[in-house]
Amino acid sequence: MPSIALNPLNIALILVGLINLVLGLLILFRSKLDRVSGSFLMIVASLLAWIVLSLIEDGMPAGAIDITRLLYSTGVLVAVAFLYFSMVFPESHRVPVWNKLLLIAVTIAAAYATYSTSGVIADIVAREGIKEYMFGYAYWAFSSFIILMFVLGFVVMALKIRSSSGLHRLQLKYVFFGYMIAALGGLATDVVLPWFGVQDYISVGPIFSVVMVGFTYYAMLRHNLLQTKTVVVKSMLYSLLIMTVIAFFALSVLFVGRDLQAQGKLSDLLVIMVTSLIIVISLDPLKRLLARATDSVFYKDRIDYQALLRKVGDVISRQVSQEGLVYSISKNLAIRLKIEYSLIFVAQEGKGLVVLGSQKPPLFIDNPLARHVMSQKAIVVTEELERVRDDTIDPEKRKLLEEVVDELHAMSCALVAPMFSESKLVGIILMGQKRSGDIYTKEEIAFLEVVAPQIATALVKARLYDEAQQFNIKLKKEVAAATEDLRKANSRLKQLDLAKSEFLSIAAHQLRTPLTGIKGYVSMFLEGDFGKLTKGQMSELEKIFRSADRLTRLVDVFLNVSRIETGRLELRKTKNKVEEVLDEVVSDLQQLADKKSLELTVQKPDEAFPEMYFDRDKVHDVMMNLVDNAIKYTQKGWINIRLSRSASLVTFEVRDSGIGIAADEIDKLFQKFSRAEAVSRVHTGGSGLGLFIAKKIIEAHGGRVWAESEGEGKGSMFTFTLPIDEKGEGVPEEDR
Fold it and tell me: Which of 34, 272, 453, 495 pairs with 554 at a CA distance of 20 to 30 A?
């Protein structure tokens, strides 16, 4: 076993190793290991291996050449790890697979050649108690390889510094200079000087990694490298934990061991075992206790972004208007993010970006800040933008950035978050400086990147709601005005309709009297009361009689319509047999059917129908109308009349093989002055009132009437039902 001498160099190496160990553990136990943190962990691990092997090698005799060769192999790991780190840092760039395989192959080949051959370390001799390294024929190649790896790494970083801007540029600069100092020191003491025979400073190289760690910590604290605050606080936690454990162990051995010293080595072993057991048992509770202590100091003002996100979501779900949404979200962001102010500018057509409910002047689209936000479509941090401006060489671009920075300073704005919905700018969030004076962290920027699209979507919906509300108000006014106009028009139409009905009634009555006289005198002429007439005279008088009769029926139709519209339709219900009425109708129309060579059939049940109360004349007119229509609109074929009954209803059906009715016209048949298109083509003389009157008469009896047809050319069926009223309910006593 090697014995490590506690000389100043080794103590320094141990301290540097502990610092690197703490930093490596913090990165290892981070919640997310990306390429950057993974490659940084590779550097820390190879440095730790270098330090540990340096301590072991220092305590080994000169003949232990394998340990020395292994130590120099770790130099290959450090150099290659740094090159890989420079390739992925700071934006976690993806390294092509072939490049990775090449690095791995080169690393394995170089490390294996260094360890397994005498090309780098040929021998070690001891002179006056001091080791002297005898370098082999390939030491120059080994040194050149190590230097080349570091040079390539720094060249890659320098190119990234030149092409990057803002926060990434600053991070690159700090890492570049910190690692440059550490690399120059380590290469000088452990690689270059031994080449020239100066071996007094071998193993000093790892100490220069302190510079690297120092710059890394500063970049963490100042520029948010590798989760700054979390890493620092965790390092504090683990440092306290390690120191507490070491102190407890040392005090236990010192005080308890001293009391039991006289009892021999067994007691010493017992003390160590008991102390170790106590440490193992109390380690986890101690860690939680120290974590609470560090959190209470460093995280007393910590922001719970998940809770804030839920709060914003709650505001979005509750607020439906744009103004209420903007006010509530601005207020919550300012309070919970602990910033000086938060303003939300909303894009409005023709007005630019405005703060709703505020007198603040709008930002027009040609404003430098608005143009910059629309072109970049990303969060703008004033401090980063200033650095970009300072690093910009192009005078025109620099001037544009200067205008944007001036605009931000004029509004005391530290951050601008654009809100886009479907690639369209909905608004921007302006945020002032943090009250603590700190810069905006990655967590805050990531939070805004998540919440900005949600606010944008909510604003679009709120805008639609506001527009709907405005439209609703306008529509209500217009509907109210239109309703009033319609009310007046409807009142006027009712007056006109009443006047029309009255006119029809008066005109019909006035026409009916002379028509009755005309029919009477013509009838007397035809019957020979005024002497014998010639055939020519008889023919003309018959035409006059038929025309007068048709005109009389038309007058009766208008009288019925007038009575229906004025609510004066009266039913004279008497006790009748419905089949007798049907027989009369068939008898009257049989001759008309025979003239057209139509087969007219009647179906009735064998048992007699009961006598029932109904208006005989009006039901007769309905049957006459339906059968007459069937005869008129059937050019050839048949007409079937069917009379049936159930316990409470009598059903009358007229089927025909006539012209049929289109499906979209059936519902219109029973309206005033409505006729089917096919019907109008066949018979142009109808009034369009017969079915309207029939429907009103049947409904006045408490029945129902309807029509059915499979379409034009497929015949039709008209049906009505009458309730069987055998008691004459509601019929005057004199009519019973």
Answer: 495
**Helix, strand, coil: what percent of the chain each, to 5?**
65, 10, 25
Under the phi-then-psi rule, with left for phi > 0, alpha for psi from -120 to 50, and beta for the rest, what region is 377?
Answer: left
Tell me the mean pLDDT in the region 484-493: 83
Instruction: State the Cα–Cα distance between residues 280 and 702, nearest whole angstrom.
Output: 97
Instruction: Give the pLDDT of residue 248.
Output: 64
Per-residue pLDDT, 502: 62
Phi first, then psi, for residue 725 (nearest 5°) are: -110, 100
pTM comes to 0.44
Q: Pairing state of beta strands 380-381 and 352-354?
A: unpaired
Which band of pLDDT confidence, cut at 50, 70 and 90, is reported for residue 389? confident
Q: At 358, give phi and psi (nearest 5°).
A: -130, 155
Instruction: Provide, rounded to the nearest whole percent, the portion of the chain with pLDDT above 70.
Output: 75
| Torsion angles phi and psi, residue 720, rounded to 5 | -140, 155
Q: Rounded CA gap, 657 and 304, in Å?
A: 83
226 vs 43: CA distance, rounded Å: 15
pLDDT in tens, 186-222: 888 888 888 887 877 787 888 888 788 777 766 655 5
pLDDT digits (tens, 9 = 90+) for 224-279: 555 445 555 555 555 566 666 666 655 665 555 555 444 444 555 565 566 666 66
Q: Angle at which helices 209-223 and 8-28 pack, to 10 degrees?
A: 40
CB count within 10 Å of CB 343 equals 18
| Dihedral sign, Cα of residue 519, residue 525, residue 527, residue 530 | positive
Residue 297 C-beta-side C-alpha neighbours within 13 Å: 11
Query: Which of 407, 404, 428 lies closest to 416, judged by CA?
Result: 428
Task: Pick left, alpha or beta for residue 627 (phi over 0 → left; psi -120 to 50 → alpha; otherwise beta).
Answer: alpha
Amino acid at 195: W
Burial 413-449, CB ≥16 within 10 A → b, else e: bbbbbbbbbeeebbbbbbbbbbeeeebbeeebbebbe
Sign of CA dihedral 673, 679, 684, 685: negative
Q: Are 81 and 40 in contact (CB under 8 A)?
A: no
Do the beta carbons of residue 481 and residue 340 sit within 8 Å?
no
Q: Decide if 686 contacts 693 (C-beta within 8 A).
A: no
How far CA 421 is from CA of 172, 201, 345, 615, in Å, comes to: 34, 63, 15, 73
DSSP 159: H
Is the per-residue pLDDT at 133 higher than 50? yes
> CA 426, CA 419: separation in Å to the nearest integer?
6
Distance from C-alpha of 500 to C-alpha of 494, rounded to nearest angstrom? 10
Distance CA 646, CA 652 (A): 12
The SS3 assignment for 411 reads: coil
DSSP one-letter string for 589-614: HHHHHHHTT-EEEEE--SSPPPPEEE
CB environment 70-100: b (16+ within 10 A), e (fewer): bbbbbbbbbbbbbbbbbbbbbeeeeeeeeee
Distance CA 185, CA 207 (A): 9
Question: Residues 678-697: pLDDT tens digits?
Answer: 555 555 455 667 788 888 88
Closest CA to 662 of 679, 650, 637, 674: 679
Q: What is the pLDDT of residues 501-553, one digit of tens each?
A: 565 555 555 566 676 777 677 777 777 777 777 778 777 877 777 676 666 66
Residues 6+ positions from 85 with CB-CB distance below 8 Å: 36, 39, 40, 42, 43, 153
The answer to whether residues 34 and 92 touch, using CB atoms and an 8 Å cutoff, is yes
Q: Which of 632, 655, 638, 672 is nearest to 707 (CA)?
A: 655
Total Cβ atoms within 10 A of residue 530: 10
